[in-house]
Design a protein that fits this description.
With 356 residues, the protein is mainly beta. The chain has three helices and 22 strands.
Length: 356
């Protein structure tokens, strides 16, 4: 039994090593496409640019130094003409970066997985949005009958006043979840934090605030939202500018700035092994925790043993007969450990525990 437990703990340790945060930042002029692809799709191509129809201009994503952030940032450029959508569609334009099927697994959203996306962006002070669509970010499914319509879209739209919209499609019909005046976004660096639990009954939240002073510009939370697409293989993020040309008279050559892209799998509360053991979902809360946690989803009787292991498989704590399913963790060191639950000498679940 001990050998089996150690093997399981080792496998979970390897799994957590894969669940690392990926951060993409500009590092100076030159080889921009190569830098982006090296992190989002190593050995492949993670950029969708209009270079094919505008070769004389050169690359449509480059890097320049930003004095406000005091670092290099990415600059996305789109021209009113002759730029197109990859020389495939000519009624729209696309200059985006993405993850896709050539990307590492930890950059692709899968069912029952919780992911946090973060990034900064800045619109030019004279930015002009199309009255049709000017998408800046999408979470889009790959596979299944609903893949044509993005799950989540952030878009700018010309109006009176111009709007910044959060759009959502449960299946193939898109609605606006919330919208705000676009004006405060122009000429200012803003920071986005987007958290999503990919599930038939999932959760979604987003906050956008000014980098300069933390002023909130848009906030939305929904704890009961379908955040999965039927028969999808995975859901992937896209960033950049993707705009309609049906409103061409109101458009101009445009620039959009990005920095600090981050993709991180953050689910820490669910038993990693509950499916393998055929047991109900077992969770702990709070997680992270500093002094005490409560175990949910299982009755802890005299035959139940709770053990905590470090990531080298060493047992550092064992308890039985917990009162109210509550465990004191004050003696644990800060960081990640693994909580194992054995009932009647059978391993029931292993849960990631974070001590802060």
């Amino acid at each position: 039994m001990k050998r089996v437990l150690l093997i399981i703990l080792f496998c979970i340790f390897v799994q957590y090593c894969v669940f690392s945060q990926v951060i993409l930042n500009a590092d100076g002029p030159g080889e921009t496409y190569e830098l982006i692809s090296s992190l989002l799709a190593p050995g492949n191509d993670a950029v969708e640019v209009p270079d094919c129809g505008h070769l004389e201009f050169g690359r449509h994503i480059d890097e320049l130094f930003d004095t406000e952030l005091n670092k290099y940032v990415f600059r996305f450029i789109i021209h009113k003409t002759p730029d197109s959508d990859r020389c495939i569609n000519f009624d729209r334009q696309r200059n985006e970066i993405k993850t896709y099927d050539k990307s590492p697994d930890n950059l692709l959203g899968t069912q029952n997985e919780k992911v946090e996306y973060k990034w900064k962006f800045k619109l030019d002070t004279a930015f002009q949005a199309s009255s049709a669509f000017t998408h800046l970010h999408q979470l889009k499914a790959v596979g299944g009958p609903e893949e044509s319509m993005p799950l989540i879209t952030l878009t700018a739209r010309k109006g009176d006043p111009d709007q910044f919209e959060l759009r959502y499609a449960e299946t193939t019909n898109q609605v606006t979840l919330t919208k705000v005046d676009l004006t405060p976004f122009k000429g200012a660096w803003v920071e986005v934090t987007e958290t999503i639990l990919y599930k038939e009954n999932g959760t979604y939240s987003i906050t956008i605030k000014k980098v300069e002073d933390g002023t909130p510009l848009l906030e939305y939370t929904n704890n009961s939202l379908r955040t999965w697409k039927t028969d999808a293989e995975f859901i992937r993020p896209k960033w950049g500018i993707y705009r309609s040309l049906t409103d061409n008279d109101n458009l101009r050559d445009e620039v959009l700035y990005f920095s600090d892209f981050s993709i991180e799998e953050i689910d820490t509360t669910t038993a990693i092994t509950h499916d393998a053991f055929g047991t109900p979902e077992i969770t702990i809360s709070p997680n992270p925790a500093s002094d005490r946690i409560t175990i949910h989803g299982i009755s802890l009787d005299n035959e139940t043993e709770i053990s905590v292991y470090d990531l080298f498989g060493r047992k550092i704590l064992t308890k039985k007969n917990l009162v109210s399913n509550s465990l004191d963790i004050t003696q644990l060191n800060k960081g990640i450990s693994l909580l194992a639950i054995k009932k009647n000498e059978h391993l029931t679940a292993v849960i990631k525990l974070v001590k802060d």
